[in-house]
Fold these 3 entries.
Entry 1:
Amino acid sequence: MLRCLQFWTVVIALAFSAEAHARTMVVGKGQEFELPSAAAASAADGDRVTIQAGEYFDCAVWAANDLVVEGSADAAAVVITDKSCQGKALFITQGDRITIRNLTLTRSRVPDANGAGIRAEGRDLLVDGVRFINNQNGILSGTEGGSMTVRESLFDRNGTCEAACAHGLYVGQLDHLEVERSRFVGTKEGHHIKSRARRTEVTDAVIEDGGEGTASYAIEVPNGGTLIVRGTSIQKGPKADNHSAAIVIGAEGVTQRTEEITIENNTFRNDGPWETVFVNNLTATPAVLRRNRLSGSVKPLRGDGQVVAGQ
């Protein structure tokens, strides 16, 4: 009994110690840290970094765990622009369980044409209310395992196929990618969303080429994996680079289990003069399509699965 009490005393003491250590760091003109990179170099596990309104010609590598990095004003008023760290990104997240919130990341360019707003190298990233505008990649992650959640965010005019293709949002073999209530518009040549995650969920999103966007697919899951797309509005524009399909599963070979493909309660509009496929399923897992509203010249499904009527 005494040993048990001693154990919990140590646990509680450590918890209070961590809480006491955590601090709020303010970035801005006249503050202790004038640039995000200076705050990133000083940040420790559990800290909160608040960036005041302004335009920052800067980039930062966030190496600590359990950080919150957030703009103090409207997301459009806190702008990180033009400068990329390590030839990769405006922000590089190396720590685990980092939150990036309420700011704009724009104009990332690097020599290999793969520059990102965020290069995610740690696990369990939350992106909340962030604007990714005119980068080569919006978000790029090669992390194995862990999760990424993107919500209430805007991806505007990202993407390129100057070298290897870059995309609006591109993740490697995460355990789980979740995109919620976010908008992808005007992606250039690459896909709006490309995911090699074991489970990918896109809910209540807007994915549209608009009149000028030249994106390839709206959503690509190239190696299989569970895919749920629900409550999402998708539009393929007249200048789309790839006319063949909107959602594609298994195009690069199925290398992981695909336990479920559910596409429901979505709208899809093809504004091109060609026929396109709404869901092209190249796996052996039956896709289930239900309560989707399609307009333009559209074939609902190619490959295994069924279009469920009357539900």
Note: The radius of gyration is 21 Å.
Entry 2:
Amino acid sequence: MATASATFKSRTAPSKGARRTGWVLSGLVIAFLLMDATMKLLALPIVTEASAALGWPSDVGTARLLGALLLSITVLYAARRTSIVGAILLTGYLGGAVATHARIGSPLLTHTLFGVYLGVLAWAGLYLRNQKLRDLLAN
């Protein structure tokens, strides 16, 4: 009879190249998210103007709240121990961005689906660099 730990045995470890590729993909996502969070935290005029155009409140408080939320999620995604939780929360955040763009009729391939592209990159990077996620998805 197999024990619970034997059932959840680790598969072949990812190659060094796969791990590096995963960190490159994750790094690109993290860099973009940090830039976006910083712009929101600084409440730059472009952020408040874009928020108004998307139907969001254009006040500084809302921009900073979204920036703090995104920064927190990005830190969770970047940290090895909390990366899966961060990816789940990031997926929800990006889903909100997709819904916002779909609601106002933004161009599909460039604006509305951008959150989907970013989410796919985030999960692909995490899959390539995180053995526990690979094991979870393999079973």
Note: The chain has one domain: 17-138.
Entry 3:
Amino acid sequence: MAPTIGRVVHYQSYGTPGGEFQSLQHPAIVTEVHSDGVVGLFVINPTGQYFTREVPFSETPKPGHWSWPPKVE
């Protein structure tokens, strides 16, 4: 599947080196798509939202990457 503008994906946050904040998945909306599959995202979390650009894809959750939400059957 190819990402397109407006699709909902998951973004895995980095967390903090000292462990004060964990690396967590957050819902995100694709705001831009580059030819290599790298995307720009509008990331939503419980305490606010932010934009991040040049986010690479990962099949599994990996800090600083986006992935498709798992299928629920």
Note: The chain has one domain: 8-60.
